[in-house]
Amino acid sequence: MYSFKHSVYSRNNRKLVYQMEIFSRHELIRTNDGYTLVLYADKQTSEFAEDFFSMLDSKRKELQKDSLNYIKNYINENCRGIKIDTVNIMLGSLLVASIAYGPVNAYTSSVPPARKVHLKPNATYTVKSGDTLYRIAGKAGTTVDQLKLLNNLISDTIYPGQKLRTKEQKGNNTSRPPVTTTNNLVLVNKTHSLPAGYTPKNLTAPNVPSSNKSKTRMTPEAAEALEALFAKAGQEGIKLTAISGYRSYERQSAIFTSNTSKYGSAVAANQFSARPGQSEHQTGLAMDISSPSVNYTLTQSYAQTREGKWLKENAPGYGFIVRYPKGRENITGYQFEPWHIRYVGKSAALEIASRNITLEEFLGKT
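The structure assignment produced for this chain is given below.
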């Protein structure tokens, strides 16, 4: 077990000193060319771990270097001489970081060259277990930066089953949906995705009961509508709690990767968990709702509770719809989620509810 004793930067850029054991254990998983190292962060140090992981994603190179040096020191002490190509960092059951390691460290020279694969122009590549962006770029005869640009990636995190463009597709007029702070009808699903770098402007946490204010941010218009919905619920003795609002592309990527590992495949995970770029939570227009009656969990049985029934009936009057209704799984692509509401504006919400249709059907898109 490696013990970190080092000055690190906190979120507000003040130096703090920690003396604690961050990684409680590790596992080595054999890959074609070496090993994937899985580091398990000690849950007792979760507050520091959150800062540590934010340093990894920081745009400031000195912060990234500090975090990567910690990992390198752990490897030198515990895994010396082992060909490690990827480092995955887990906090509990959640994969919070996946780092391409082998191609840029001292073991690079001893790693066999990647098998040559001739990819056709406009080709796509399906990510396999153990793959890294460095390995895929080598096979495709391109660079990691170019791969990230082509696929709207802002980190090195990839997951098995993910399809990556490896060449610029000429003559392709397919465009992403227009996403603006005023476009409440933007469609985001398995065929309409958001750019990795998209973040709604002026995100704000609605003044409602919540499990964590930092995780319930929405666009200002949606937040104001949610406050009105919750106020009405309170007047009628209905207890609602906001669980999860805006999620970044990176956060969704970590969630989907974790679910893929947990459920065995990307296909299984994608029945209920969105791939990065395909989550409505990235729009700032969606909110997961729960109540004390179901112990604040997100469960399909919520539909049978007094609160769940009230939410379905009253949400449209405030501009929200139950986005993934029962019996429409073949249209939305996701299982029934009575807790997931999406802001579309009052007029559209009332029409969608009265016609008992989905947002896809309302917009005439799939």
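Interim note for the steering committee: Residues 1-20, 103-122, 169-175 have pLDDT under 50 and may be disordered. The domain at 113-165 is CATH 3.10.350.10 (Membrane-bound Lytic Murein Transglycosylase D; Chain A).
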